[in-house]
């Protein structure tokens, strides 16, 4: 890879590992629904000029039913659940739980009939290894476990795994930026009435900067950079960042929020990581329009939009 490609790769490894930290800080002062509105409104408005310049919004609007379904499953519901879960879960644990998305994605692709038939025993071994990692992670960190929050995180993982299938089958021929901008703005409009009623009377400087960072850096800038990365090195290699993002989330949580580096993290994360790599290693990369970023791969990698 070129120096530019390595720079983009390194930037995305960090940028999509940061949202868990920012969400954890923001929800101290802001309701989860209001946070989703603020993040999507900021990101969507920044991307709107790029979407208009690229064209394609009319074509996106013609498929509004599929766009709406994709938006609900990928952004509107998962980002709300993730934000709510982080009111009780640490940012590092949340990041590690989202790391199971590649495992869930293999199962979803198999059910949907879009999975590559290769992989054999290695794929099943990876699934079992990843599941063992989750059990170890939660079992050793039982003090941090909350049933409601874990259920929310499980639904987040399922949403992140299902949404790319919808994208590949129904929206993959559309230009990337307009699809992302439309999804963000639709979500913002949906949450606007709620945010208007639940807008906080005051917000700390840390929470305000976290919200701005989520919208500007972790959403708008992240998608632009990730599409550039895919153009440079292809979707298959670009999505390697999804295996690095959870480690960044853990590091930031430990260093900046004084979260504990527990035995569950030390043992569970390597198992989840290895299981994800084995389970997904033989999957074929979907085919996308030339000169356009791989939106499904980008959305899968946001597990971290968030991701979150």
Q: What does this protein look like?
A:
This protein has one domain (3-301). The model is unreliable at 283-306 (pLDDT under 50). The two termini are 27 Å apart. Helix content is 76%, strand content 0%. Helix 2 runs antiparallel to helix 11 (205-233), helix 5 packs antiparallel against helix 9 and helix 7 packs across helix 9. By secondary structure, the protein is mainly alpha-helical. It is built from 15 helices and no strands.
- The number of distinct structural domains comes to 1
Largest sheet: none
Residue share in β-strands: under 5%
Question: In DSSP terms, counting alpha (H) and pi (I) runs of 4 or more, how many helices?
Answer: 15
Give, in order, the helices and strands: HHHHHHHHHHHHHHH
- Which secondary-structure class do the elements indicate? mainly alpha
Distance between the termini: 27 Å
> Rg from C-alpha positions?
18 Å
Shape: globular
Low-confidence stretches: 283-306
The percent range for helix content is: over 70%
SS elements, strand count:
0
Average pLDDT confidence is 83
Main features:
308 residues; mainly alpha; 15 helices
Which helices and strands appear, and what pairs or packs with what?
Layout: H1 3-15, H2 19-26, H3 32-54, H4 57-62, H5 64-85, H6 91-98, H7 101-112, H8 120-140, H9 147-171, H10 176-197, H11 205-233, H12 235-238, H13 241-256, H14 263-280, H15 295-301
Helix pairs in contact: 1-11, 1-13, 2-6, 2-11, 3-5, 3-10, 3-11, 5-9, 5-10, 6-13, 7-9, 7-14, 8-14, 9-15, 13-14
